Amino acid sequence: MRILVCCKQVAEPESLLLDQQGRPDPGVPARPKLAEWDARALEEALVLKESHPGVEVWAVTVGPAEADAVLQRALGMGADQAAHIIASDDPPSRPSGIAAWLAEFARGRGFDLILCGVMSEDAMQGLVGPMLAEVLDLPCATGAVSLALSPDNTGVRVEREMEGGRRQAVELPLPALVTVGASPRQPRYPSLSHLLRAKKAPRLRIEAQNLAQTPTREERRGLSLPQRQRAGLRLAGGSAEKAAQLRAILEERSLL
Amino acid sequence: MSPETVVPPEGGRVVAVLERGPAGLAPVSLELAAGAKLLAEWLGLEARLVVLGDQPEELARQAAASGLPVMAVRVPGLTGFSGEVYRQVLAELLPRWRTAVLLAGHTTSGLDWLPGLAGRLDAACVSGVEGMRLAEGRLVLRRATMHGKLVEEIAPRAWPLCLTLQPGALASRVTTGNAPGAVEIIETAQPELRTKVEDLPGEANADAALSQAQVVVAAGLGVGGPENLELLRRLAARFPNSALAGSRPVCDLGWLPYRQQVGLTGATVNPRLYIACGISGARQHTVGMQGSGFIVAISHDPQAAIFNLADVCVVDDLPAFLQAFLDLI
Ligand SMILES: Cc1cc2nc3c(=O)[nH]c(=O)nc-3n(C[C@H](O)[C@H](O)[C@H](O)COP(=O)(O)OP(=O)(O)OC[C@H]3O[C@@H](n4cnc5c(N)ncnc54)[C@H](O)[C@@H]3O)c2cc1C
Ligand SMILES: Nc1ncnc2c1ncn2[C@@H]1O[C@H](COP(=O)(O)O)[C@@H](O)[C@H]1O
To answer: Minimal Cα–Cα distance from B252 to chain A, Å?
Structure first.
């Protein structure tokens, strides 16, 4: 059985420093990382691999040359194969385009299960997974918090979480696509032996420009810093001074 | 349609697909109706609402209170939610209705059925819309990106346009006391399905003390470890009628039980005072606490998204600040 995990590289949120115009500070490059829910999806795939003989796990990313780091991470965590669809991320590709490229890569490679994150940690769109399922005409479930193969390995049963903690079980025949959400399994750390292998492991590299291009149906008109919804008073000084100011504010409002 | 068309086709419709909550229409449904009304007015189109279900009449009646016409689609056997059913049924109906704009909630169900359908309809698609405006006759949608640290504005270049609306975004636009819109019942057959869906018995996941507390002290990953929760417990103890809560990852790690989780998949709270300790401010968290009376946020990331909805922002190391604050009160 072959499992494909779609892995996006994102900037570590705390390392992302923006100027007044919302541009990243060129002096302090953001630290890249594997997006949170993609890491969880990969963890689920690796757990399936460990508990079922003959499971092979692939990781694929769409991004610039530097995005190879997420493939390294995925291989380090235990993925068997890695593929890189090389595309510039400035401006970021639209979800329908990414889905089309991933579909072109996945088609004919015999993936029984494709896993995505429920949404990418930075862009938070939640679109690429279900759009990919549509292009490949696969049954799809989103926001899985757990997933298990059926006893005869012909289907997958997922539990998806909905508003207010309500849950739903969905059974899908394979091949299928599942997006993984707030699953409670913590993604494992890469192991040293896997990392050593990852450095040398070959990657399948594909130039996005050689794949089919979808029309751009949405156009980004601008980026800006969010507007404050409330006063957003910033306290100044050391910890003790800020603590004193906060006490005064809460007392004034009879909250303390 | 040409990808360069900036105005929607004449005679098209704005269609909002409403959502069922645990009791009747989900709150986001009223905002979807408000959004449909607004878009129809701006784009010179007609608006209508859609509800789906085995017995859609009651939901349709509630939806009609928005004043808009409602299509109640009866799907035999659809008692809960099924993304596949929504996709199949709507893929038939939407083109027939000449849908130019399709709205759904940015929720676990809207995000389940809408993106695939957008693909099938070759539609423009924007999710997590938090605001919209007309700029020189063009529709421009606003959404958060880059971990909530930036806002992007996106204009559709093709129609239909499919969008998911962030709950809370249009709360101020909801109107009441309208003359009810007409309800039309549409009979459909149960579509052929590949997936099987079963609603699981729900856990009572919100702590009663949490929803009733006047002061909520909430822990995020920034607390660093379960040992530091003691500082938050001591802080909570200084306020009468207070409760300790946590973000999702804090509950995933077992530092707090799930019934103390605030957010989309946890509890919604509206205390007089919410103290967010080491919480970055992801939308899935803030939808559960944005209605709080007064919000104090503490994080050492000066650009954490939580600061955009805080009344008071404290940029500091959490344990150091809490210790200093506890020494004073
Ligand atoms: C389908 C779905 C449903 C979800 N439902 C929920 C939900 O109901 N509730 C929920 O909360 N989340 C939910 N999430 C998860 C959500 O998207 C975020 O991942 C989560 O809210 C982040 O939690 P956090 O703020 O505690 O952690 P982080 O995002 O890691 O933020 C930690 C913050 O603490 C700061 N910090 C770190 N160290 C320190 C220090 N020493 N001193 C001061 N500050 C520090 C950091 O700068 C950062 O601002 C859901 C996600 C999905 C996909
Ligand atoms: N550039 C990318 N490379 C690989 N996978 C991606 C990429 N962008 C999105 N995905 C996958 O699609 C999911 C949803 O992304 P999004 O629609 O951007 O929120 C992510 O969690 C990934 O699994």
So the answer is: 5
Task: Please check whether residue B222 lies inside any domain of the structure.
Answer: yes
How far is ligand 2, taken at its centre, from the CA of residue A8, in Å?
5
Number of domains in chain B: 2
Which structural domain, as residue segments, surrounds residue B114? Answer: 13-199
Residue B1: what pLDDT? 41
C-beta atoms of A217 and B156 within 8 A: yes
Q: Among B59, B104, B93, B49, which Cα is nearest to B79's?
A: B59
Sketch out chain A's domains with CATH numbers. Answer: 2-210 (3.40.50.620)
Other C-beta atoms closer than 10 Å to the C-beta of B179 total: 7
Residue B46 and residue B69 in one domain: yes
- Compute the mean pLDDT over every residue in chain A, rounded to the nearest whole number: 95
Place of tokens 């694929």: A60
pLDDT classification of B203: cutoffs 50, 70, 90: low
Q: Is the peptide bond before A91 cis (omega within 30 degrees of 0)?
A: yes
Interface test with A, best of B139, B146, B197 (most A CBs within 10 A): B146
pLDDT in tens, A9-41: 999 999 998 888 888 888 888 999 999 999 999
Q: Does B147 touch chain A (CB under 8 A)?
A: yes
Instruction: Indicate which ligand has the atom closest to the C-alpha of A94.
Output: 2
Q: Are residues B47 and B177 in the same domain?
A: yes
Confidence of residue A130 (pLDDT cuts 50, 70, 90): very high
How close, in Å, is residue A165 to chain B by CA atoms? 5
Give the contacts of B191 (CB within 8 A, at least 6 positions apart).
B75, B84, B85, B88, B89
Model confidence over B156-188: pLDDT tens digits?
999 999 999 999 999 999 988 889 999 999 999
B240 in the same domain as B181 = no
Question: In terms of domains, do B98 and B235 share one?
Answer: no
| Same domain for B18 and B95 | yes
Measured from the CB, is residue A118 less than 6 Å from ligand 1? Answer: yes
Closest atom, ligand 1, to C-alpha of A36? 19
- Tens digit of pLDDT for each residue in B91-102? 999 999 999 999
Look up the ipTM and state it. Answer: 0.95
Report which of B15, B21, B51, B50 is spatially closest to residue B35, judged by C-alpha positions.
B15
Which residue of chain B is at minimal alpha-carbon distance from A121? B147
pLDDT at res. B2: 43
- Provide residues with CB under 6 Å of ligand 2: A 6-8, 35, 37-38, 61-63, 95, 98, 116-117, 119-120, 123-129
Q: In the predicted model, is pLDDT for residue B3 greater than 80? A: no
Cα gap B183→A199, rounded to integer Å: 63
Atom 29 in ligand 1: which residue has the minimum CA distance?
Answer: B280
Atom of ligand 2 nearest to the CA of A35: 21
CATH number at residue B260: 3.40.50.1220
Question: Residue B165 burial (CB < 10 Å; 0-12/13-18/19+)?
Answer: buried
Q: Provide the b/e sequence for B217-233 (b: ≥16 CB within 10 Å).
A: bbbbbbbeeeebbebbe
Tell whether B185 and B246 lie within a shared domain: no
Full-model pTM: 0.95
Smallest CA–CA distance, residue A211 to chain B, in Å, is: 18
Q: Which atom of ligand 1 is nearest to the CA of B304?
A: 49
